[in-house]
Specification:
By secondary structure, this protein is α+β, with helices and mostly antiparallel strands. The chain is about 30% helix and about 20% strand. The strands form seven sheets. The chain has a seven-stranded antiparallel beta sheet with strand order 19-16-18-17-21-22-20. A five-stranded antiparallel beta sheet has the order 9-10-14-12-13. Pfam families: BBE, FAD_binding_4.
């Protein structure tokens, strides 16, 4: 293998030297001319197909005919954009190339790539650069960023900004501009493609593979694991693929489903899906946060929803997937074709199978919602800590009773600086239930709270649709911070079936909060709906009674040693306590602990071996890599063990056997 890699490197080096020694050219009417926007049209073919494609981007594809034509016209470096035949697999280099490496694309190659994409290439300038001295300084923009950095919309419409900037190395934060720090790219990608056609994705996939550079996919900037960025990478920005086709009568390829469905582009956001569903009298299965992309990391990762206890996970709704695979081909996966991939991409994690362009998902009838919400503190209620925990125990112990209905209880709690606790229930609701029945169900709990002297000033509500309840009662979550990290655990039903184990469970979760962690806890289940084919959703979801997210924070001025200690405490202590009371359970990969040493078991459970087998088959060159994604154990960021932020600011190399 070393000799083969050496030969590959030599050939690639000679090719690169040749391509960068002269300007790019193309033959037009028998004459060799400069390749530019006047002489090179975008490499795209408009496809007519019996398949249901979203018009305007999915029918615009890179084909063998397009590549053959450009080859005949002798466009320089066109071979870099050919599809992969998956031959000569042993020639894959040990590390991905970075800027400054001999094999990393030069300006001329980037120019050809830009020409073929129709000018879609964007050189990365970190959003926070507006606050740093230099050519990108802009006082007005900087003031806006400083005032709105924690709002998701600030980041969504930028091609590279991250809502979890730790993973770029916390570089170029706007608040640090006045401190004289330098704004660097860090773990941000080198370039992004503003994707508007399938052809642009195919060109990027083939180019990144040919030039041995990292390839990442970014839609909105949401990600708790750093899967949407990478040093020196080429990034695919799918945010503008936001078409939704409403189909009142849809039949799946195998005939197992007949009913309403949406075909959604990769850029569709949760609030966009909910709004269209409400307009057309349907209920969609989406997330809490309004700006999360539905078909991006959310659905491939499983995707829990306010209606999951009723309809299952987001991945359970998927009827068909259109995707560009690592060889550059555009395919459809469903229950009749590419079935292994179809199984894997429904719950088997994001950022590792290819680039999803659209998904067709089932939607459901319009449904009423009733529930209650509260936002209080122990100080406001005039109670001590012990009374507070008795109230919590009264609520948590009723989880199995509430789980008999399609309940969704979403609460947050954390310690207050001067003692006591903040407690927010935003919201506890049950789809398909009237307010009268909801009040009857929770009255025993309210009676027990009253007996304890606990009055959280409940706000009851009732709506005839999910969208209105979601829009009113789900809080906006701040983003853009660099002083916290989270982990989670799916606690199973059996923890409530034994009184001693239930008591231990409640005491364990309490101990974590008393040790300074913040807690987000859900009463939720993710049952597999009847009629849904087998998929790769973590089996732990099917038996979940309580979904806990725990987090640690550190001071903005914390040293690297202090940050490392906080990370170690989260993974090695707090998270381990939850594992100890739930052996054999699991965690939700989209909001998981990046440092979990048992992430394969935690995030994928018994599905992992099959997922890894499919990964090796569909992506033998490991073009797609992301932290904790299937197959990621074969690679690592060099020297990351010394990085307290666990960032993507480093060289990605194969792990030696």
């Amino acid at each position: 293998m070393p000799a083969q890699r050496t030969r590959w490197t030599l050939v690639a080096t000679l090719s690169l030297l040749a391509s960068t020694s002269c300007a790019q050219t193309i033959v037009v009417d028998g004459k060799t001319v400069s390749a530019d926007y006047d002489t090179v049209a975008p490499a795209v073919d408009s496809i007519s197909s019996n398949a249901r494609l979203l018009p305007g981007f999915e029918n615009l594809q890179l084909t063998d005919n397009v590549l053959a034509n450009l080859t005949n016209l002798q466009l320089s470096n066109i071979s870099l954009f050919h599809f992969d035949d998956n031959k000569n697999l042993d020639s894959t280099p040990k590390c991905k190339s970075l800027p400054g490496d001999l094999l990393y694309p030069g300006k001329i190659e980037w120019k050809v790539f830009d020409l073929l994409t129709g000018g879609a290439l964007i050189k990365t300038v970190p959003l926070g650069a507006a606050c740093y001295d230099g050519e990108h300084y802009d006082a007005a923009v900087c003031d806006y960023l400083l005032a709105n950095w924690s709002i998701t919309e600030t980041h969504v419409n930028d091609p590279s900004s991250l809502m979890s900037p730790l993973f770029a190395g916390a570089t170029c934060q706007p608040q640090n501009g006045a401190l004289g720090e330098e704004c660097t790219l860090g773990g941000f990608p080198e370039y992004s493609v503003n994707v508007t056609t399938v052809a642009q994705i195919q060109l990027a996939v083939n180019f990144a593979r040919s030039r041995n550079i990292r390839l990442v996919v970014r839609n909105t900037g949401h990600d708790f694991l750093g899967r949407n960025t990478g040093k020196g990478a080429l990034s695919l920005w799918t945010h503008h693929l936001n078409d939704i086709e409403v189909m009142d009568e849809y039949e799946s390829a195998d005939g197992s489903y007949k009913g309403p469905a949406f075909k959604m582009g990769a850029g569709v956001l949760v609030h966009e899906m909910y709004e269209v569903a409400e307009k057309h009298g349907y209920t969609g299965v989406g997330g809490e946060c309004r700006t999360v992309g539905v078909t991006g990391g959310y659905t491939p990762g499983g995707g829990h929803s306010p209606v999951s206890s009723l309809y299952g996970m987001a991945a359970d709704q998927v009827l068909s997937v259109d995707i560009v695979t690592p060889d550059g081909r555009f395919i459809t996966a469903d229950d009749t074709q590419n079935t292994d991939l179809f199984w894997a991409i429904r719950g088997g994690g994001a950022a590792t199978w290819g680039v999803v362009t659209s998904m067709t998902v089932r939607v459901h009838e319009k449904i009423a919602v009733a529930g209650m919400a509260w936002d209080t503190t122990t100080t406001d209620m005039g109670i001590d800590d012990e009374t507070f925990w008795k109230a919590i125990e009264a609520y948590w112990s009723r989880y199995p009773e509430y789980a008999e209905y399609p309940t969704y209880g979403y609460c947050r709690m954390s310690g207050l600086p001067d003692g006591g606790y903040a407690w927010r229930g935003k919201p506890f609701m049950i789809p398909g239930m009237t307010l009268r029945d909801f009040k009857k169900l929770v009255q025993p709990l309210l009676d027990e709270w009253e007996a304890l002297g606990v009055d959280p000033k409940l706000e009851f509500f009732e709506y005839d649709n999910l969208y209105s309840a979601w829009k009113k009662h789900f809080p906006t979550v701040p983003v853009g911070g660099t002083t916290a990290r989270t982990a989670n655990r799916l606690l199973p039903r059996k923890n409530w079936e034994d009184a001693e184990l239930l008591n231990k469970t409640i005491k364990t979760v309490r101990s974590i909060v008393e040790d300074g962690a913040f807690l987000v806890h859900y009463n939720i289940n993710g049952p597999k709906p009847e009629g849904v084919s087998d998929n790769a959703v973590n089996p732990a979801w099917r038996d979940t009674m309580m979904f806990n997210i725990i987090g640690v924070m550190w001071d903005a001025n914390a040293t690297e040693e202090e940050i490392a200690a906080a990370n170690k405490k989260l993974t090695g202590d707090l998270s381990q306590r939850l594992k100890d009371i739930s052996p054999g359970a699991g965690a939700y990969n989209n909001e998981g602990d990046l440092m979990d040493p048992e992430w394969q078991e935690s995030f994928y459970g018994q599905n992992y071996d099959r997922l890894l087998e499919i990964k090796k088959k569909i992506d033998p060159r490991d073009l797609f890599w992301a932290p904790t994604a299937v197959g990621s154990e074969g690679w690592a960021i060099v020297n990351q063990e010394n990085d307290p932020f666990i960032s993507q600011d480093g060289r990605l190399c194969r792990v030696s056997a």
